[in-house]
Structures are given as structure tokens and as C-alpha cells.
Design a protein that fits this description.
This protein is α+β, with helices and mostly antiparallel strands. The chain has three domains: about 70 residues, Uridine Diphospho-n-acetylenolpyruvylglucosamine Reductase, domain 2 (2-Layer Sandwich), CATH 3.30.43; about 110 residues, Uridine Diphospho-n-acetylenolpyruvylglucosamine Reductase, domain 3 (2-Layer Sandwich); about 100 residues, Uridine Diphospho-n-acetylenolpyruvylglucosamine Reductase, domain 1 (Alpha-Beta Complex), CATH 3.90.78. The protein contains ten helices and 20 strands. A five-stranded antiparallel sheet has the order 6-7-12-10-11. It has a four-stranded mixed sheet with strand order 1-2-5-3. A hairpin with a 2-residue loop joins strand 8 and strand 9. Helix 6 packs across helix 7.
């Protein structure tokens, strides 16, 4: 375990690039590190915040407590059966690097999730998803350490209560467990998921008819880079809002007044609306507020354009939510964690 440091600036540890300080800070390299930390008076007597890649958090103030940076590393194959391989990745591994590792080892299933910021440990918490694939599609199990007594527990898929950008770790077990590793069930055979129209368009541009996992990954990266800002250039946390779900009656009403409405039918009879479309059609693309802005190419993304404070971004998000509700009668929900 690294030394516990005092008054650490978290600006370089969150992708919004927001300056915020914490009272205490420590890096955890192993389960044993964390179990030892549990015995420290600072741990027992402080508010605690687990930080991975810092890609889904907005600091609106200094954190009066202990920030625990999970930097556990390691990738290994832990099982193999006909058609599938089980791959275990430590929580501190950079997500995109892990995806590329899987592609290099000809393991299929994660390629559509290329270039998503963050670390492996956050992937099941958020049930991250993109371009027709979600973590729950390839999730096998995870290992987590109790933040109360240090005991290890295994969570299988049924234990996680996965939903759209949801899991049990965001509610029932919030701040109860430190995720240490995640095991994925990946296919030995190429199973390219090109159901998302933009992927097919990009593959056509590249002249690819029978795509490999690497081809799909390249297409996804080209799409993301074309419309999403690089956090290293302009601070952001990717999609700031969830795509809202509405009953069919509300969808029919909106479709009558907005024929070009972008929506997706769900198995429960409801419809998922494209939050980016709603924001864009409120005329908010490029809208700025105190250094924060709605990204000019992708309205779902809020950016730190000119040294914005966390509260500036939060205020902008509230303005966007109000405008969408006033225009469409639809309530947006923030996907980013507010601290």
C-alpha cells in the first residue's frame, strides 16, 4: 500500500479536469493493500470515495475525506470451455487497454466497447454499453472486498441486477464493496455485432465485408473519435445523461408532434428516447455557461471548455434538463456521479 498523502489535487485524476482537493489520498495495488488500509484510523474515521479512471465523476467541491485510488493490475485466462474463454481482469486495468488485449488474443465480445474511458472495475457498476453491446452480455462474475470488514465476496450475474447503466452496486451496495476483479466470458469465434447502423456505414467506408473483432473495434473507434471530444483536449465524462425511458403513450404523443424523434422499442413495451436528440432539438448544441458547454457535435456530452468549475457544469446540466422537460415533457437523469 502506498503512503497516505494529505491535501491532494484531483484535477489530473478526473476526466473533466476539475480542480478539487481531498483531505487524504491513497493508492491500492492489491486486495491485501485494501485489507491493511481498513485497519488505519484515517480509514475508519473518514468519509470514503473510490476512484478508478475518474471518467464518471464530477467534483463540485473539495472532498472532505479519504480518496482511494484503485490501481490493481493484471489480466489472466482462468478458464476455457468449448467455444468460450474466461478472462479475469483486475479492477485498475484501463478498460480500452483490456479490450485491445482481448482482441490481440482473438477473444471476441468486447470490441463494440472500444475506447470507452475508465477502468475495468467500473464496467459492471455502470453496466457500460455502446453500439449494441452491454457488459451484462459477457459478464461472468466479479470479486469484491467488503469496505466494512475486508471479507471477499463473489458476485455472479444474477447477483448484480443489471439494467440500463445500472447495477446493484449503484444502489443497494453503494459504498459497501471495493470491486477487485471482473471475469468475462468471451467467445473464441468471431461474432461481429454490426447491428448498430453507424458501424456498418464505417465498415463500408473501409471496404470491409466480413469484419473481424479488430475491424469492428476500428470502426467503433473511428465513430467515437469523429463525434466525441478527447478528455485530454477538452474535459468531459462522455455521456452526461441517460437515454430516458417513456411509456408507449408518451412516445406516440411525441412522435405525432416530432415525426423525426429518435427512439428504440423496449421489451417491456416502453420506448427509450435518444437524449442527445432531445437536447439537440432544444437548440442547445454548443450552448455555453461559465466555461462549461454542450458539445457542438454530440449534445449528450457536456464539456469543460474554459476552466469551468464543477458547479458550472452542474448548473449547465440543470439548465439542459429544464429545457428538455419544458420542451418535451421528458425528465432527463444524470449518468455522471456528482461529488
Amino acid at each position: 500500500m502506498s503512503l497516505i498523502r494529505q491535501h491532494v489535487n484531483l484535477q489530473s485524476l478526473n476526466t473533466f479536469g476539475i480542480e478539487a482537493f481531498c483531505e487524504h489520498f491513497v493508492e491500492i495495488h492489491s486486495v491485501q493493500d485494501f485489507q491493511h488500509l481498513l485497519q488505519e484510523p484515517i480509514y475508519r474515521n473518514s468519509a470514503k470515495l473510490i476512484l478508478g479512471g475518474g471518467s464518471n465523476v464530477l467534483f463540485t467541491q473539495d472532498f472532505k475525506g479519504l480518496v482511494i485510488k484503485n490501481v490493481m493490475k493484471g489480466i489472466e485466462i482462468v478458464g476455457e470451455e468449448e467455444g468460450h474463454v474466461l478472462v479475469k481482469a483486475s479492477a485498475g486495468e484501463v478498460w480500452h487497454d483490456f479490450v485491445l488485449w482481448c482482441i490481440e488474443h482473438q477473444l471476441n465480445g468486447l470490441e463494440n466497447l472500444s475506447l470507452i474511458p475508465g477502468c475495468v472495475g467500473a464496467s459492471p457498476m455502470q453496466n457500460i454499453g455502446a453500439y449494441g453491446v452491454e457488459i451484462k452480455d459477457v459478464f461472468e462474475r466479479l470479486e469484491a472486498c467488503s469496505m466494512e470488514n475486508g471479507e471477499m465476496r463473489v458476485f455472479h450475474k444474477a447477483d448484480c441486477d443489471f439494467g440500463y447503466r445500472e447495477s446493484v452496486f449503484k444502489h443497494v451496495y453503494k459504498n459497501k464493496f471495493l470491486i477487485c476483479s471482473v471475469t468475462f466470458r468471451l467467445s473464441k469465434k468471431p461474432l461481429p455485432n454490426t447491428s448498430y447502423g453507424a458501424i456498418l456505414t464505417e465498415l463500408d467506408k473501409l471496404g470491409i465485408q466480413s469484419p473481424s473483432a479488430k475491424d469492428v473495434s476500428e470502426a467503433v473507434m473511428r465513430i467515437r473519435r469523429s463525434k466525441l471530444p478527447d478528455p485530454k483536449v477538452m474535459g468531459n465524462a462522455g455521456s452526461f445523461f441517460k437515454n430516458p425511458e417513456v411509456p408507449s403513450e408518451k412516445y406516440i404523443q411525441l412522435k405525432e408532434t416530432h415525426p423525426n424523434l429518435v427512439a428504440y422499442a423496449l421489451a417491456n413495451g416502453h420506448y427509450k428516447l435518444a437524449a442527445g436528440w432531445l437536447i439537440e432539438h432544444c437548440g442547445l448544441k454548443g450552448f455555453e455557461h461559465k466555461g462549461a458547454a454542450v458539445h457542438q457535435l454530440q449534445a449528450l456530452v457536456l464539456v469543460n471548455k474554459q476552466q469551468a468549475r464543477g458547479n458550472d457544469v452542474l448548473e449547465l446540466s440543470s439548465m439542459v434538463m429544464k429545457k428538455v422537460f419544458d420542451t418535451f415533457g421528458v425528465q432527463l437523469e444524470r449518468e455522471v456521479n456528482i461529488v
